[in-house]
Protein 1
Amino acid sequence: MQDFNTIINNIHNNLKDNVVKGVVASYIPELSKQDVNQFGIFIQHMNGENFSVGDAEVPFSIQSISKVLSLSKAIAFENNDIWKRVDVEPSGNPFNHLSLLELENGIPRNPLINAGAIVIADILCSQFKNPKQEFLQYVRAIANDQSIDYNLKVAASEKETGFNNLAAANLLKSFGNLNNDVDVVMDFYFHQCALEMTCSQVAKAFYVFANKGRCVNNKQHISSSQAKRINAIMLTCGFYDESGEFAFEVGLPGKSGVGGGIVALLPNQYVITTWAPGLNAKGNSLIGMQALEQFTTQTNLSIF
Ligand SMILES: NC(=O)CC[C@H](N)C(=O)O
């Protein structure tokens, strides 16, 4: 077993004083308050060990990382039916891009861009009686942590300025690809994105995808084939128009969020989360991507 502690400590040390750290998201006003110098890394190994450095226990806004968790619950409910409403192709476009949605008759390219995640949110609004509560319970269960919660200020902040997402939802509705009211679906979507978790909680939640659908408590939440498909979607679509670059540099299925978090995993081996709020031009954590590139290069532990 390699010395993960030394490796991540060295990476953290090398990158923490980088002068170029990227820019914190400001289109959600509450996120612009984040300190660009925060930086944490956490690894949950499947042999039970874990490794941590820096701000790995500081809660952050997981934003689009939540799209994988909502997707897994929608797949558990509806299995293959969801692919009638959302595709599985990389979009090659930014996460909030709209024109492709119109060209392609209201079928989003994949569930990890905003329009696709809004369709998934609609599925959960139909399946759950109390979507916000029951989704939170699901996330707490797979992460084995009852302390996880929504940050209501972030949810309200995104709602106030979420014009682009409302446009996506209205476009979906106009194409008949949204069954619930736009307001109901968007209220749920803004809350799911406003889940606040630490690097260690995110790594524990994503263990289910590295472990063939069984969570840290060994409970089966999705089938092994469903976990395999979710990993394929993360690999091809998890970083929007930087998904190719992430596969090229890091070589793991993963997902980013505009709160600056990134989670990535090597099936049957480990889950790694980084958090550094400064983003690059594509909306992915600048330091987080560099840290993960260095980690898989130094350990030679990627899927390729
Ligand atoms: N890339 C992201 O993390 C985007 C999520 C954000 N809540 C949005 O919908 O715009």
Protein 2
Amino acid sequence: MTDGDNVSSDQVIAELVEMGFEFSAILEAIEAVGPSKNNAVEYILNRPCEDGKALSSSPRCSANSRITLGKRPMHSSLSGQARQSRITDHLQHSGIFKERKTNDLSVASASRSKVVRSVKEEEAPSASKYPSEVPMFPVCKTQQPEVGSDWEQRANNLLHKHFGYSSMKDFQKEALNAWIANNDSLVLAATGSGKSLCFQIPALLSGKVVVVISPLISLMHDQCLKLARHGISACFLGSGQPDSTVEKKAMNGIYEIVYVCPETVLRLIKPLQTLAENRGIALFAIDEVHCVSKWGHDFRPDYRRLSVLRKNFCTSRLKFLKLNIPLMALTATATFRVQDDILESLCMSKETKIVFTSFYRPNLRFSVKHSQTSSPSSYEKDFCELIETYANKRTCGKKKHDMVATNAEDAYETSSNSANCSTSDTENRSPSYECISGASYRDRRNHEITSMKRNTLNACNGRQLSVEYLEDDFDSLQYVNDLDVSCGEFFGRSPVNECAIYDPSTVVNPPTKSEERLQLLHCPLEQGPTIIYVPTRKETLSIAKFLQGYGIRADAYNAKLPKSHLRRVHMEFHENALQVVVATIAFGMGIDKLNVRRIIHYGWPQSLEAYYQEAGRAGRDGKLADCILYANLSKVPTLLPSQRSEEQTKHAYQMLADCFRYGMNTSHCRSKILVEYFGEEFYHEKCLLCDICINGSPELQNLRVEVDIFLQVVAAQDGHNLDSYEVVNYRDAVSRSIWRPNIRMVVGKIREQFPKYATSDQLWWRGLARILEGKGYIKEGDDKANVQIKYPSLTKEGWELLRSGMDQSFFTHPEADMLLSMNTEKSYSSFSEWGKGWADPEIRCQRLERRRADRKTRKARNRKATKSFQNLNTVRGRLAAKLSKAN
Ligand SMILES: Nc1ncnc2c1ncn2[C@@H]1O[C@H](COP(=O)(O)OP(=O)(O)OP(=O)(O)O)[C@@H](O)[C@H]1O
Ligand SMILES: [Mg+2]
């Protein structure tokens, strides 16, 4: 760069920082001589320090000084206002930057602290590009700075100063201990437990840069914004069009924390090596590290390539390093298998410290409810309570707003238009973050609704839906760019005032003792936003629209909506302008909003990892929060389409099956199941809050007779002749090669052979089969993985049970589908009761008649309510609709 009048102060500052001068000295020089690099260099080199030496050779800058723990090198001690970027700033980064330059200089000057230079000039890198007459950027031997015994005290002081918290949590201390010992670490801790601090504090303590690999722009943005509020400078580099200014500054060590998406970090290996050589890299933190594993729920192939970090930042590759730069991997959802995969894939050291704290979230109230989850009529039933909560106790079920979707076609059209509408809406918005008042929000929303409606009418005139859109209705976390910015920088504001915003006293520590947990039982659910997770993009739109129809401030979030819309939803959610966000899995990972009161899953999640991760967005203030799963308990869930290898498919089925079992469970505390799923021992007897703990389990039933019949039939169908029951072995009648007795056939045979069970329900037997499989009496006879056992075959234990005779009882709690079949269809509560009266032809006749009539009415009702909806639920249906429209 040549000096010229049109050169901005910030450019000069950046260049001088790059050359290794201290911030304070640079700023002082620029104040004195103006934004001229040469003059500033001359000024710095010649002007004496307070102690009489030139700044360039002051003890602070001298070769002998070292970066020491606790010494903050950059913009940390900020007084007064600071230049804090927001997304909108970054969009117009250069313009604003220039505009503010002169005015903000003094602010910047006050807000930036010193660059610590720590190395002898003769130690400077020989291949340096910097001119020899200016001090070189310091070379930090990238080993951990000498650790004083008081590091913990200093860390606590920094914690208090920046975040307002009194002390670190135990697991945070452990993670820091591992870092200080230059060990790799794998931090496994519950959602919302404070994992971020484990990698943020090292930046403050060491004066080096912490590089954080994070999967989503929205997540990086949230964290940077928060850090800036706490007086810590940070930036994020996504994978979109890079902003060379921010990237260059990041690689020059301007920011204390640099968030990078995995794709970008692979591109930046060389500049990062230079950064390690100059300012130094304290640590590579890999957040949401479960994305590394194919056996996790959010596999991201680029995460897998992060092994380059170990290979390129170790002593054998970088001669100036004395020790490898440590890796810190963090997640809230990793099973043992995923943990092993992480350690191996990232080439983490054999001495990796596993920092482990409980996954248990004691203030989350888990429950499961049965719902069709597929039509507006189920929305009305299921969201009644939500509507009452948010819409000032309007009566649910009364005539709805004329806006409410009545059929899927409308929902589809509107969804597309909603996206369009949102685009224009957000494009017209002022580029700053304003907090939207209730009234203005309502006005805007009404406007949106009206224009959506208008667009819907217009759209009817020949607008066609693309097949690709129809088939591609599921979100995955394959892509990092979920917002319309690809990078951003955030300079820390003074944390003093911000402590009031993040008042730690409002953050209640999660109760662990049972008396404390019992108190939660009597707490009412406080006000706060809700996130509804749905499997498909289409449902985000239709449910959001449904809720808007009741005057609720709700909006949709899915990866296919315009990014400007997504950014607006993020912002409004954080500013409490939205009451409900209806989202696919694209929303939420790592979101740290304290007061989310409800997480509703509307439809089966694909795994318990995903479920727990998403549910973990609730109640981060430690107060009571609801996590409700609405699922169709009468249907076995299916895998959402995704490209998987055969092995991955098998594993995905296994994960879905675990999730299905969680939903079907009627006898075990839900928190216990979730926590134990991750391999942790649950030390409490129960959580006291979940639906099972509150409502209790259904009565134990002795199903010995039914079990025996079931096993007999399975055995007989499998080719074994047993004569204790009159089971016909009709395997002989069918060719052996194609014969596979499936559960339907088993039930069919039972109905045929045992009059007592002639009208028994598939659902009930399916439940029993699952229980038997869980206890190891039967196993899947098919090679393929299934969510629910399809082709039962007896195990050794099953044979033993069968031979043990009827003396042995078989007590069990009926599971959710069994209860459902008993409650909805018949008045009996167990088979023994149900059997009564069947011998009487009159009663039998009446019952069958009633059952037929019930079925007829139900079918007719369902057909009417969901005719077009169902059509549009299948690709074939949607294509048919499209064709009929075209004709
Ligand atoms: N030592 C502490 N004392 C009190 N509060 C803390 C402490 N450490 C962190 N917190 C607070 O805990 C909250 C959650 O932190 P953070 O976002 O780091 O959670 P997380 O473990 O990363 O969760 P997730 O798995 O969802 O990403 C934040 O609001 C944070 O300020
Ligand atoms: Mg986190």
